[in-house]
Amino acid sequence: MTKITFIEANGTEHEVEARNERSLMQAAVQNGVPGIDADCGGQCMCATCHVIFDDAWYAKLGTPSDDEEEMLAPTPDRTPTSRLSCQIQVSDALEGIKITLPEFQM
After folding, report:
1. Is the dihedral of CA 31, 35, 41, 44 positive or negative?
2. Could you tell me the pTM of the whole model?
């Protein structure tokens, strides 16, 4: 299990224990984190699991796929470090990560 903290736009933190080899989106949904709707169920076909990372963590995640970039393009709160949480797998390497949820999704 990997400890992950999701932070709402208002600063409220949700620390969860996430199973490795599942997506960050699944960890958020399974733990009732508000702001992660996951309308497409993790198929990279919506942007309702949009999250924002700090620069250091973003650099460790690898680059988003073309499909992910396409889904993020029209997202109102997109930042240079935005990703779709359905496209990032939980692993021990993410231990302690803090992820910000965009205000638009709240």
Report:
1. negative
2. 0.93
